[in-house]
Amino acid sequence: xxxSWQMAFSAPVSRTATKIAGREPQxxxxxPTPGSEIDHGAADAQREKVKHRITPKLQRIVFLAxxxxxxxxxxxxxxxxLPTLRACLPEFQRLCHLGSPRARHAGAVAGWGLKPSTRKAxxxxxxxxxxxxxxxxxxxxxxxxxxxxxxxxxxxxxxxxIYYDASRPSAxxxxxxxxxxxxxxxxxxxxxxxxxxxxLRLSKYNHAPDRPLFDDDRPRVLVVDQTAGDASIPGGLxxxxxxxxxLESARAEHPESEILVKVHPDVxxxxxxxxxxxxxxxxxxxxxxxxxxPWSLLDAVHxxxxxxxxxxxxxxxxxxxxxxxxxxxxxxxxxTDDRRHCPRRGVPRSLAQVFAAAYFGYARYANPYTGQAGDxxxxxxxxxxxxxxxxxxxxxxxxxGLSSWKRGFVGDFLGDGTAIRHLRHNKPPExxxxxxxxxxxxSQLDSAAEQRCRERDHVLWRMxxxxxxxxxxxxxxxRPLSLVVDSLGIHYDAxxxxxxxxxxxxxxFPPALLQRAARLRERLVALRLSKYNVPGARRLQRPEGGxxxxxxxxxETDASIAHGTFDIRTNGDLLAAVRQANxxxxxxxxxxxxxxxxxxxxxxxxxxxxxxxxxVGDVDIVDLLDMVDEVHTMCSLAxxxxxxxxxxxxxxxxxxxxxxxxTxxxxxxxxxxxxLELDALVAATLILYPLYVDxxxxxxxxxxxxxxxxxxxxxxxxxxxxxTHLYRWYRNIFIGKH
Length: 738
What we know:
This protein is of the alpha/beta class. It has 3 domains: 7-181, no CATH class; 204-349, Rossmann fold, CATH 3.40.50; 506-733, no CATH class. Helix 21 links the parallel strand 24 and strand 25.
């Protein structure tokens, strides 16, 4: 079956860019020998046969299938299981394993790069005259390592070669050659992307510790070793001896500098072989064998020597001088000091042009937790949030007073790289060692336990439900998708500062973050999402009359009432105050869902019905927020959700969203000394403060991922399961209201 491809660029392809093919894409199964010379005259003749589809706004190579098959045969089942593979290959309707019967009808074959393990897949493609598509991890891959189960957020898809193999053309090389046509808007996007990578200190992998290495300003040079067998070494037209020559060059060219030799940790551990393990014995050389963030290394040096490591490109992003002793994808464009040359390149390109080609045009992005395709910026936000929280939470934890149900998921929210020890529910915090971080559920921490923690120098952290929690109520044991973990206080306690309050008081909110918050806010409103996302049993038409007010009831024994209110602490008192201040308004009262199910305290006293016009406990909170003009509340999260929808909000307590100039407040908090725009409040409350977890992988994610998951879950959620009804019966009889 014939399967042809066209290559679509963002602009007409230059004369230089057309002199690189050497063969039609269909014949890529027959690979040239590494290091073989390319006949440029034959390349010109062959290239004339390849038609270019000009698409001004496309910034990547697009594969256009001309067969009805639409099936891609994938070399290994491990590749086929990647959760982002399908989203990164929208050209294909079906993916199958190369060994399956369906592979007989495939129009192309895919394998992992051009490594020896792909030989059978490439031979199959060559034998059946099918395109071979090389797939590899992208340049912004994930927080953790693939060998530790972290799926890729980015893949590169190449029908010509692969970016690390300079012995033949690749789609990335073509894109860089054609980069003279990159639009100014795309270059501005590239400059912004590079700046964000620097500010967030992100790399291909982001699990390594990021810390200063030295406290002096001695000049230092970095020499980057690679593991033996790395395919990018021969692909970079280099060999093992080039590493020793690189080290000798670095020592000779920088006699006054300390030479830092970065070797892989597995080489130090004896699990793999490297090339420069003995360098630590040389005068003026220091071996760096621990796992470290590339940015920690780059902060310490003024020059970087590489053979073909991607660390060299990240050094360019860090504005370091880079010397290439092989031919990585970023060499040959005038950005690096090249000791080896590739005749196909040699045209000057800016760093922004190369970055745009590699990160926007060549790499493809998808969210591994939702399976949805994405882009560079969305992936940057997700991995950036994961990395920020992982670095914040890494270390040892002791939990105190958590139920067995909460112990089952709290570890997910603390992330990888943590060690957790659980104290028994009734065991006092003296069971923790002095100085350990002690984590408790905020509403269950009493003052006596808090005092004992202070006496023993425990760093006390408090945990509570997040603001985009679940489909279903926590009291019904619906597992949360979001929690908050706070080292200062907790967001609902107005008597002390919390991490959220400090962020709102002190943080800067750059335009990119505010724009992200605005998109998130608009998405929440459009999808009609709230904290619990419990659907209402009936729809309500807006009552006729004047101003329509919503008063959301609260659980009167809740910790937010105890710590976030002043003179008004019951639902009845709140209704009385609202009615007194608004005698002509129509008031809707919605009891708290936990009160409605009989689990918590907060029912009105007899006679309080006269204080409102209509009870709407069985109406969806989102329907009500869309309908009313104002929300009057003690400290309910419904007030925050009303702000998202542009409603006037009057507070009778001091919730976290009050005191910033966005609400009309009956009380003041002197600590809150700043007026904020709504999207700054959204950014701090929904992006920076909470922790989010994907329930499928049980890994940290971000707000946008949880919004997509809630949307998917809500489509499958109708009525509470029989287990929920059974638990409610048990709870109401044996536990009672609390």
